[in-house]
Amino acid sequence: MIVNQKDLGAGLSFLGMAIVYGRVALRELPFGSALAMGPGYFPIVLCMLLGVIGSFLTIRALCAAQRISLSSRFSWRPVTAICLAVIIFGTFIRELGLFLSVFGTAFICSLASRQFAWKSGVYLAVVLAILCTGIFAYGVRLPLPVIGTWFTG
């Protein structure tokens, strides 16, 4: 049997996440209805979409025309950079504030690329920090500090 291992791995991962998180959302959060959405409505809809994508990838992997195997070399740089960026954002958003947290997250994520350039990384981080601060702090008015407690006392 010919199997596309990359699509199979991604599809099964998506299906697993959809099942686990969908089950937690169904058990712990009230669903509501389309007109009166409860806190569980959006996570359950996202889990259903994730399940559909996972099913599609799994079926596509099992119907592959040629064998594609995972290479023995695993690229740790992107995985480390993305995980570190998410951890830093979640840990220090109150202390650094929204602007600097988004800046740091975007800059650390840009380190994941092999074609990393300092100027483009800083430019990307500044633009994303300005956009996210404008949208989430001033547009949506999320209760997040723009400047964190380390700088305001």
TrEMBL record:
Pfam families: TctB. InterPro entries: DUF1468. Signal peptide: none annotated. The chain crosses the membrane at residues 7-26, 41-62, 74-92, 98-114, 121-140. It comes from the Bacteria. The keyword Membrane applies. Keywords: Membrane, Transmembrane, Transmembrane helix. Residues 10-145 form the DUF1468 domain. This is Tripartite tricarboxylate transporter TctB family protein.
